[in-house]
Amino acid sequence: MNDAQSMTPEIPGDVGLVEYHDFLCEQPFTFDCGKTLPGFVLRYETYGHLNREKNNAVLICHALSGDHHCAGIHSLKDRKPGWWDNLIGPGKSIDTNRYFVICSNVLGGCQGSSGPSSINSQTGEPYFLDFPEVSIADMVRAQYLLLTQQFELSELHAAVGGSMGGMQVLQWGIAYPGFAKRIIGLATTGRQYAQTIAFNDVGRCAIMQDPNWNEGRYEAGKGPDVGLAVARMMAHITYLSDKGMENKFGRQRKASDQGNPFAAEFEVENYLRYQGKSFISRFDANSYLYITKALDHFDLYGESGQMEDSLCAMESRVLIVGFTSDWLYPPEQNRDIVHALLRCGKDATYAQLNMDLGHDSFLLHAPELYQLIENFIND
Amino acid sequence: MNDAQSMTPEIPGDVGLVEYHDFLCEQPFTFDCGKTLPGFVLRYETYGHLNREKNNAVLICHALSGDHHCAGIHSLKDRKPGWWDNLIGPGKSIDTNRYFVICSNVLGGCQGSSGPSSINSQTGEPYFLDFPEVSIADMVRAQYLLLTQQFELSELHAAVGGSMGGMQVLQWGIAYPGFAKRIIGLATTGRQYAQTIAFNDVGRCAIMQDPNWNEGRYEAGKGPDVGLAVARMMAHITYLSDKGMENKFGRQRKASDQGNPFAAEFEVENYLRYQGKSFISRFDANSYLYITKALDHFDLYGESGQMEDSLCAMESRVLIVGFTSDWLYPPEQNRDIVHALLRCGKDATYAQLNMDLGHDSFLLHAPELYQLIENFIND
């Protein structure tokens, strides 16, 4: 770097206008549950350029309610960029001047990838509950086909994900040892514990008890919106923290709403009800059932109860980051992954950040977090 | 105590068969919200005997889903005794050989006291949402009328309650200084914080979005059972702790249920769904709305933001007990009450118990807790 450059450091830019693509896999795909589909679609986006050696690809794995659109905008009218736009872009911590970034919507999802709302060509209507049960390993296997068939990759510079994305990157390391050179998992866990299963099940019950669910058979736009909104509101609380909510909302009241005494009165109620409503416009209730079940079935401890039995296959360097205020996947659950890796003699490190914003801390622009990711990915 | 007695200590007994009574207050009762009812009913039970000096009465205040039946059985066929039967009885920590114990169902409730499901004599049908909004202070004022009119009490030896019962006993100390000589509050708070308001609101939304809620107008037995069950399932998680749930359930699976892939699969799901179902048989959904709102409005910090401004009126000796694993009303919120009392120069003490069972720890038979209560009440 010359003096002029060091005095005027490059201002990080945005990836700008982006578009999605659909990867159509036309070979039969057998799920962990034993069922087979004749093929599947994964919707994905890419940013930056794949180099000639094909060794600069970074895979981003999204969380339960995320999607393939993790950076940039789809049109100049877009009010919000992709969900990790703060992290990914030219000159940003995951630098698209340097890396070829790929992010796909998970199998079982509802944002363009095959899932229960996709059309079953044999019946001409959506799969509904005939869609095979999906596991985290299925999601990863579908991503592997995308990377190896569409891009002919034989390695990833890194795989990065938080929450369910963290489960996927761990699974990447186990299923395809050495394929991903670096694995970064944030706010994640080696298995779903009873409390988290319990919260997911309440959400599923809320959806299934909505008369519009109709055993999973509903027309697009006429689904169990009410149940899905309740599920989302509850889940959203688990993504925050008591302190974060207190700082943001406390007991602030909104402008009074005459009439129904149980209308939203406190700002926190208003916020959550809005979150519930906006979710139903972008998410399919059956996908919510499928993906939460995939989470609940995730268990790297397996029958032996020893995570080492799964993790010993790993050949990647691993960084796991936990957040003190995350009570969905608390720091201990993150740290336990690294301890198990270290017991297997693997190259793994754990960082814990003091952020008040709960589980969703990994989605926020936090310089301390981004610096950790940047240094690990560039090392 | 003679030697024979000390060698064969009395085995604590049960209060045995008990029955409830209804206190009918026939004078107009004006609620904090400004509305007036021509009178009200409180259903209550008593155990032990009121002494001639009328100074041995102990008031028990119940939590959100509790009732007046806190000890003994109603018939020999009863499978479960009252909810605090472990604590209350002859020779138990709250010794009915010594104290006259009174417990009433709260105003706004649905177990015999006046609430939204009570018949409005002017219309001949239930009040539904015409029932006045209820506050914790209203509940306490109704209890005061029961104690002073029915039993002509001018003092309480003690008032004891956990969770919402803890809010009531604090309100007792503030509204009627010196009436209760001792106040014991367990797993409680000086105000409802944003996260707890948020959970309550999700529960309310689940109820109100059930088509059977019908703006609060439903026939007995045809109410929003589905919404109420979801609300209860979610709330039940907040009464436990992650560690407690993990120890009890972990990832244990129940016998497989063919068919619906989203049927209860893990034991924790089975348990919660059972909790939801059994709740709808004993609780009215409108009462759930009213009482959770009473909780959310509870705020001893008031406009000044200083709990001392409320607590300085207190003339009772106060014991507050927090539980380390309680994340609904965490230890700090309990401790803060005592700190504020001490800043006012009051006689108050805080104890914190390491129990893994979360908020509901106060309901469990824990010798360490019961010893604290016994010694404080007998002192």
Describe this entry's structure for a reader:
Two copies of one chain form a homodimer. By secondary structure, the first copy, chain A, is α/β, with parallel strands linked by helices. Chain A has two domains: 14-193 and 298-378, Alpha/Beta hydrolase fold, catalytic domain (Rossmann fold); 196-293, Rna Polymerase Sigma Factor, Chain: A, CATH 1.10.1740. Chain A contains eleven helices and 14 strands. The first copy, chain A, has helices spanning 3-7, 136-150, 164-175, 194-208, 225-239, 242-248, 267-280, 285-297, 308-311, 331-343, 367-378; strands spanning 21-25, 29-30, 36-37, 40-47, 57-61, 88-89, 94-95, 100-104, 119-120, 125-126, 158-162, 182-186, 317-323, 348-353. An eight-stranded mixed β-sheet of chain A has the order 1-4-8-5-11-12-13-14, sandwiched between helices. In chain A, strands 2-3 form a two-stranded antiparallel ribbon. In chain A, a hairpin with a 5-residue loop joins strand 2 (29-30) and strand 3. In chain A, helix 2 (136-150) packs across helix 3 and helix 4 runs antiparallel to helix 8 (285-297). Chain A is globular. Residues 1-9 of chain A have low confidence and may be disordered. At the A-B interface, helix 4, helix 5, helix 6, helix 7 and helix 8 of A face helix 4, helix 5, helix 6, helix 7 and helix 8 of B.
